[in-house]
Serine hydroxymethyltransferase (Mycolicibacterium murale), 487 residues
Amino acid sequence: MTAESLAASYVAPGADYAATASEAYQAALRVIESVEPRVADATRKELADQRDSLKLIASENYASPAVLLTMGTWFSDKYAEGTVGHRFYAACQNVDTVEALAAEHARELFGAQYAYAQPHSGIDANLVAYWAILAAKVEAPGLADLGAKHVNDLSEADWESLRGKLGNQRLLGMSLDTGGHLTHGFRPNISGKMFHQRQYGTDPQTGLLDYDAVAAAAREFKPLVLVAGYSAYPRRVNFAKMREIADEVGAVLFVDMAHFAGLVAGKVFTGDEDPVPHADIVTTTTHKSLRGPRGGLVLATEEYAPFVDKGCPMVLGGPLSHVMAAKAVALAEARQAEFGVYAQRIADNAKALADGFLKRGATLVTGGTDNHIVLLDVTSFGLTGRQAESALLDSGVVTNRNAVPADANGAWYTSGIRFGTPALTSRGFGADDFDRVAELVVEVLSNTQPEGSSKAKYTIADGVAARVHAAASELLAANPLYPGLQL
Ligand code: DSN
């Protein structure tokens, strides 16, 4: 499949699709304009800006017009607390339809026993998962011991005792600076306050996950929940090994696949690298490599399904029905054969980007990538992540700064830049384009100097930002975003 046909396959499946989408957006913007023209203007400008920048933020993508349009409907106006067929509100028959479709597509796509499409975001999905585990492993046996069926039946003293147990459980997850997520037990996050937490890291020499070290930490700490998954680790994880570790210490294996769900959906990660057959609960966002609307999703085994299904009222209020509808559309797209081609290209392009950096002498955390992420250590350019991020942005390259393991500059200034390939791959970028991206990034960073001892201020040599932005615009014009879509 050529880059052009790949891009076309998701934004323009029919001959007049782009024209139809153009008409739809033009009409919508006229309506918005009649009420608040500044919002219509900002909406047009956002598309123009996204069209003319190299979007390399690893957690972003471009959803199809079908997904985007599905979010702009009257489903937004409907309350539907509860679950399919069991709502606390009347007249939810159409929400039932779209929620059931989203869950069905998710189950089929990932081979999961159960799927829950209500979480509004990744953190909501993770909170639903954590509380489902606590409900299954602590609350339900606690109620049984007390001979009660429902928490409302408990005396004040028994409820206090059970609440104490719920708040006294252990979680072991990957540390933020080695690539884990805030919600994996980072103390400033609620996950680090709900649980007694401990963090595992990566090998200080290689930057790679050390399963023996994870196993040793698990044996010593004996967590209720072992968390696997990452936001900034540029390598694959062996979930069969994580399962073995969890089983050895009697932990529940929870995998957050928010970043790489598209690679699982597209069957790039299979066998030991596919978390779904190995984990008790898997969560994801739907808007990253999965290329859907902004939202969350929980997959679970039958054991945990009844607990996840109580995400509302446990953690969530009313679901975003319009977003669940868009999840159904996006998951239907991800079930098409072309999505597998797209997912493989995400990984191939990341490799091309990493190779492009390495051959130009740059330093990468773990020395490369085998997923969709490339983590560049910018200290060799004499810069902080903050300076590098800003200099790249001035040059039309949108990235985000990210900590590297044991980062001397901390989580705010950082020493790294995280790159991801899902978005530009959606535009049709191929390996040669990503090599050129590496060249442009290195050109900017090699020509950027810190100002004095500041960790934020910097100077770019004259003409470099404009020259790189012009070169980026050429690449972008050859791989247009939403080709044929006119506002
Ligand atoms: N903010 C997301 C990311 O960029 O990885 C994770 O929450």
User: Anything to note?
Assistant: Residues 1-9 have pLDDT under 50 and may be disordered. The first strand starts at residue 54 and ends at 55. The first helix runs from residue 3 to 11.
